[in-house]
C-alpha cells in the first residue's frame, strides 16, 4: 500500500514579521475565482491558494492540505485531511468542502475536468475523501498537486475568493495588482510576512529596471539577455532555474512546403545538427541547460538527460541528410530532385532567440530556415490549418508523466501536432500509466522518451529559464521548476 | 532669409553618398558574414578585431551595420523609385486628361495623402504576415499620392503658362510640350519631395523592422538592430548606437539635401513643395 504523508505543518513558519514584500510579475490573475482560466496558477504562486498535494522543487509530490494520501486499493485513493484547516473566512475545510471544491472544478474548468476524468470523489468521513478511479491509477497524487485543483470555498465563489493559503487577498485589480495580508488562521503557523503587494509589469525591460533599482524585492521573469548586468547588481541575486518544460521544435511530417520532414532521417539529422550548448549560451546567456531529450527537463527523471541527442554531432547529421537524398549543391544548400531543403520555423516570445540560433546552425548544414516570431495564438492557428513546418513550444514535463507523454506522442495527444504513430506507443503508454510496480512504470516512461528520440517528432532544445531577481533582504525564497510554486513561500521573511 | 542652399545640399549629398558608399562596399570593408554567429564573444565592446563590437549572438556589429545599410537603403530606394514614377506619371496623366478624371482623382489623392503610411503598412502586415516586402507594399499604396498631387498641380500650371499655350498654338505635340514646357517645371519640386519622402521612408522601414514587422532574421537591418540592442541599452550601448547613428546620418543627409534643393529652387523662382 502506497502512502504519501506529510510531516506536520509546512514547518518553520512561525515568526511573523511586519514587513511588506513587493513582487513584480509578468502576469497576474484576471479573476480571484480559482476556476477562471489560469487564475489558480497565479493564486498559488502568490501564496493564496493550496491543494491537497503540492509538487516539491525536486519534482516529487507531498501532502499539503492533506495529512496523507494513500492507495487503499488499485482503484481507490484515500486522502485524510489535516485537522484544524480553515478557509480565510473561518469555514472548516472538511471532506464535504473538499468534495464541493473538486466538483465545482470539474464542472467549471476544462483542465480540472481532464485531471478528474473517470474519477469519483466522495466524502467518507469528516476528514476523509476517497477518489475512485475507473482503471487502476498511480498518478492521482500528482493530479491532486496540480494548481487547477486548489481547494476553495464553493459557497463564496465566484464573487469572492475564500481560500486556505498563508496570505489572504485584501486588494485586487484584475490583471494589474493584488494585495495580500497574513492569514492568521493558517494551519502551518504564522506566515513570515505581514503583507505582500504583487504588481504586474508586462515589459521585461521595465521589470529589469525595477529589479536593478530595488523597487521590488522579488522580480519574476527577468530577461536573460540582461543576466550579466542583473547578476552584478548590488543588493540583489539573480536566481535562474531551468523550468520543468522543454523548449521543443515540433515538426510537421505532412507539410507540403517542407516535404523533407516526412523522412525520419531528416528529422533526426535536424536534431543531431543542433549544438544545444551553443543555443543555451547564446539564446539564454548560459542560464538554461541543454535538453537531449524531451523528458530531460523533468527533475524526477534524471536519467532522461543521458538519453537522446546527448552531443552535437554534425557528421551524423550530414550523413543522415545525404542518406535521405538531400545533398549539398554548388551553392552550399541541400536539395533533392531540384527541391531545396527549406523550412519555416515559427517561434513565440523569448524563443525568438532560440529560433535565430537554430536558423544559423541549420544553415551550416545547408538548410534554409525562415524564422518568424509570432503570437502563440498564431502558432495554434497554423497548426489547426495544417499550414506549418516547424514551431517552438514548451510543454510542462513535470506532473502525471504518463499523461504528459501521451500528450506528446499518443494518438490523440494535444502536442502530437504531426500525428505521429508507431505500434510500440500504445503498449508503452499503458505500461507507463498502469504497470503494477513503480520501477516498471518508470522504465516505460524512459522507453517512451527513447522512442521519441528515435521517431523525432520534435527536437528538444533546452528548458525555459525562470530568472528571478531576489533582494538579498529576502530569506526563504525557493527556486522551483514550476513557475506557480516559485514566488511567495510561507516561510519567507524580509531581513 | 534663406541662403543659396548649395552648401546644405552639398552636405546632404556627402552624407548620403557616404552611407551609400559604405553599404555598397560592405563586403569589401568587412570580412565577416553579417549573419554568422559566434565570430566573436557575445556582447563584446569595440575592438581591433570587431570595430563596433559584437551582438548577443557573437555577430560582428560592423558587418551588420554595413550590410544593414544595404537592406535599408535598397528597400528605400526601390520603394522611392516606384512611388516617384507611379505618382508623377499618374498625376501628369490626370492633369493632361483633365475634365471629369481630374475631378474624380483630386479627392482620391487628398484622401491617400491624409492616410498614415504606418497604419496601412501595419494593416497589410496583419493580413499577409511580417516581411519587408509586405511592409513596403503598404508604403507604396499610400506614398505615391503626394507625388501624384504635386505632379497634377504642376502640370496643370505648366500647361496654362503663356509659353505652353503659344507652343500649342504653333502646333507643338504633346511630347514636345512635356519635354520643353512641363518637365523643367516638374523635376525640381519632385526631387525635393522625393528627398523629403526618402527620409520618411527610412523611418518607416526601420520603424516596421523595429516592431518586428519588417526585415526578418537573420537579415541585418538598422531598425531590427535597434530593437535587438534595446535590451542591452545600459550594458552594451554600442548595440543601439551603431545602427542609431547610421539612421541619423542618413536621415540628416536626406533632409539637408531636400532643404538645400528647396532653397536653390526657391532662388530660381520655381514652385517648391512645403
From TrEMBL, chain B:
Main location: membrane
Subcellular location, record wording: Cell membrane
Keyword Cell membrane: yes
Membrane protein topology class: Multi-pass membrane protein
Gene3D superfamilies: MetI-like
Pfam families xrefs: BPD_transp_1
Entry keyword annotation includes Protein biosynthesis: no
Segments traversing the membrane: 7-29, 73-101, 108-128, 134-150, 190-211, 231-257
Keyword vocabulary terms for this entry: Cell membrane, Membrane, Transmembrane, Transmembrane helix, Transport
Domain ABC transmembrane type-1: 69-258
Highest taxon of source: Bacteria
Span of the signal peptide: none
Family: Belongs to the binding-protein-dependent transport system permease family.
Entry-linked PANTHER family: OLIGOPEPTIDE TRANSPORT SYSTEM PERMEASE PROTEIN APPC, PEPTIDE ABC TRANSPORTER PERMEASE PROTEIN
Name this protein carries in UniProt: Peptide ABC transporter substrate-binding protein
Source taxonomy: Bacteria, Bacillati, Actinomycetota, Actinomycetes, Micromonosporales
